[in-house]
Amino acid sequence: MSGTAFVVCNFLAIAFLAVPTPWHWSARNTATLLFIFWCAVTIIPMALNSAIWYHHPHVRAPVYCDIVTKLRVGGDIGIPASIFCINRQLEAIAAARQAQFSGRDRRRQRLIELAIGLGFPVLIMILHVVVQGHRYDIVQGVGCIPAYYWSLPLIFIIWIWPIVFYLAAAVYAVLAFRLFVARRFQFARLLESSKSAISTGRFVRLIALSVFQIAYSLPVALYIHISQLRNQKLKAYNGWTSVHFDFNYVGVVTFADLRRVSASDEALSQLSYWSYAISCALFFIFFGLGEESVANYKRGFYGALRKLGGRRMESSAGKTGTDPVQISLPELSHAESSDFGYEHDKHPRIDASHFSGVVVTVHEDKATV
């Protein structure tokens, strides 16, 4: 694994995730915002860790590592859970089971998505301590990562849930896409009638994001777990005291240690570490390069130009308008001012709006009526 490339790509992934986020925030799509949230709380620490522990895996910042390792446990469940919520929502829309969304329906749907996409990962973060054999591990070039006690409870508390969510999300994605193809001609009207923030283009991009996320993450998760079960025998879970003995121990893995493992194990580790940056890159590809995004880029660019141009015009006007210009005009006599015929044409009206910084001096006409 190239440490420099890993650091750079992680920080680029943060930018990729940040660019389309404001538009999704304005749309208030809970499932998509949950995906953004879990990507953020995993990729930001990953980027910082890869830079902090680039040269040597020193044991430092223990409280920080306690926090970010728990966030990573939650993110490993939260990302697939949010993908499941996205596809569940898309399938419900495509099936036209919810042609009209009342305020109560929206609140209920939001609560369900928050329970699945936020509440359940937080619960797993809490339960992680059951299978946390020691405090955490530090890998050079990666930083602090969660520690697991290799046992049967680990499979049912941690391992199984990403696979379950991705498989269920894949089923919903297939159903949603099949219904979309079958009803593609009236689909735009369906979305309009449902008053959903999801347009037809966004619907397709959400399915595409889910498909690519599942196509990458599900095989990797299955391959990693099967390989680990094949290469290492599960330990017996002999109680809390036995599992958590010497709990404050921190494991350290250097580049030299990584080179001593088999090529397949090293590849598995790399696939796991790169997964967060890949998720952010996929999100940017589908939502940072679409037509809506390009239109938003243009609006922001031209808006900045207008503001910059306005400030320059004000600055220019301030410089050129300091010295007033005097124009002398004769005062009209009563006869001239009341005559709308020939005499009125002798003194046409002057539009004062054309004069900026002009002082007009009127001289009295001594002519009598």
Automatic annotation (TrEMBL):
It comes from the Eukaryota. One of its GO terms (biological process) is pheromone-dependent signal transduction involved in conjugation with cellular fusion. It is found in: Membrane. One of its GO terms (molecular function) is mating-type a-factor pheromone receptor activity. Keywords: G-protein coupled receptor, Membrane, Pheromone response, Receptor, Transducer, Transmembrane, Transmembrane helix. The chain crosses the membrane at residues 34-54, 111-131, 151-182, 203-226, 271-289. It is a multi-pass membrane protein. One of its GO terms (cellular component) is plasma membrane. Belongs to the G-protein coupled receptor 4 family. This is Mating pheromone receptor a1. It comes from Rhodotorula sphaerocarpa. The gene is STE3.
